[in-house]
């Protein structure tokens, strides 16, 4: 977070967390 | 203090290129748009639009104000949503911009799970290639941008940083780029790029095209690009013997009738950025 930037909303934090979890599962699956 | 409604009108004119199109987008009457612009010019003491032939265009001052206005309106929009979530008027809203293959894979899976965990959450999704997604993020039009960058292990010193200036980045995936050819091609065919030096190539967005050309030139040939598209449905319909393309990593590999192989050292890290 850069100084002066607005804080992320709870929804944004939740979405990024969920994207990270989905990506981790996708990464574990063979193409 | 400049009037926010008039700034919205100026942004609409800048975005749509004419008073008529801006009026249509805003659901205003055309004279109303002209009136708002005239008032804004009076407030600022500056000409913001000028006539060019039968149309109009923004003056230098108009472009400057429109760019700032776009940022201001995006921030106001964010503030409104965050305040609404804070006081419990709604669970929350999240706006995301992402490139097409992410919108077809990661995003729907994440959105479905998040909606199940957080009923009432509202998603606003926009398709945008990385440069545009980051511009939207900085302007406050979206809260999260999913972007990607290419790098080649034997040419680049290190993977790129996931975050740009003024953003926070999270690395989601570091994926290999796959070469896609028609499945009808001899399955024993070597997977290397040089085997396709004589093929006709399908290239994607400007950045993907640059990456393709760089890869092929490193392999000793210049690709003969016959089709430029970001539309994977269109590209998929064009894959036939003698054609090749390097799609984004995961999206095309599972499509029927095509063959995906992995040239060495081709990577594309994808990550989110948020303000």
Fill in the keyword field for this structure.
heterodimer; A: 31 residues; 1 helix; rod-shaped; B: 275 residues; alpha/beta; Arc Repressor Mutant, subunit A; D-Maltodextrin-Binding Protein, domain 2; six-stranded mixed β-sheet; five-stranded mixed β-sheet; 13 strands
Concise summary:
The complex is a heterodimer of chains A (31) and B (275). With 31 residues, chain A is mostly helical.
Strand residue content of chain A: under 5%
Element-by-element helix/strand order of chain A:
H
Radius of gyration of chain A (CA) equals: 13 Å
What fold name stands as the CATH topology of the largest domain in chain B? Answer: D-Maltodextrin-Binding Protein, domain 2
Q: How large a portion of the residues of chain B is in β-strands, by DSSP E?
A: 15-25%
SSE-based structural type of chain A: mainly alpha
Helix content bin of chain A: 55-70%
Find the structural class of chain B using helix and strand composition: alpha/beta
Helix content of chain B: 40-55%
Low-confidence parts of chain B lasting 5 or more residues at pLDDT below 50?
A: none
Name the helix and strand elements of chain B from N-terminus to C-terminus, one letter apiece.
HHHEEHEHHEHEEEEEHEHEEE
Q: What is the tally of beta strands of chain B?
A: 13
CATH architectural arrangement of the largest domain in chain B = 3-Layer(aba) Sandwich
Provide mean pLDDT of chain A, rounded: 71
């Amino acid at each position: 977070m850069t100084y002066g930037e607005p804080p992320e909303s709870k929804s944004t934090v939740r979405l990024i967390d969920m994207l990270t979890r989905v990506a981790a599962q996708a990464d574990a699956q063979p193409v | 203090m400049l009037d926010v409604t008039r700034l919205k009108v100026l942004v609409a004119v800048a975005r749509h290129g004419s008073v008529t199109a801006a009026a249509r987008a805003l659901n205003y009457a055309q004279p109303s748009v002209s009136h708002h612009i005239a008032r804004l010019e009076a407030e600022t003491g500056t000409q913001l639009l000028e006539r060019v032939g039968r149309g109009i265009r923004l003056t230098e001052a108009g472009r400057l104000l429109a760019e700032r206005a776009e940022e201001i309106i995006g921030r106001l929009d964010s503030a409104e949503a965050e305040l609404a979530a804070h006081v419990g008027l709604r669970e929350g809203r999240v706006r995301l911009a992402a490139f097409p293959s992410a919108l077809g894979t990661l995003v729907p899976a994440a959105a479905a799970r998040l909606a199940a965990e957080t009923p009432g959450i509202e998603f606003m999704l926009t398709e945008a290639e990385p440069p545009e997604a980051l511009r939207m993020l900085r302007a406050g039009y979206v809260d999260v941008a999913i972007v990607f960058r290419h790098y080649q292990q034997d040419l680049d010193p290190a993977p790129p940083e996931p975050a740009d200036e003024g953003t926070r980045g999270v690395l989601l995936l570091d994926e290999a780029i796959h070469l896609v050819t028609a499945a009808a091609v001899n399955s024993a065919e070597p997977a290397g790029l040089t085997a396709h030096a004589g093929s006709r190539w399908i290239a994607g967005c400007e950045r993907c095209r640059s990456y393709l050309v760089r890869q092929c030139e490193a392999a000793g040939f210049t690709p003969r690009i016959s089709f430029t598209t970001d539309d994977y449905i269109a590209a998929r319909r064009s894959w036939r013997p003698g054609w090749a393309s390097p799609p984004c990593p995961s999206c095309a590999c599972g499509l029927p009738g095509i063959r995906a192989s992995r040239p060495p050292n081709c990577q594309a890290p994808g990550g989110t950025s948020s303000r």
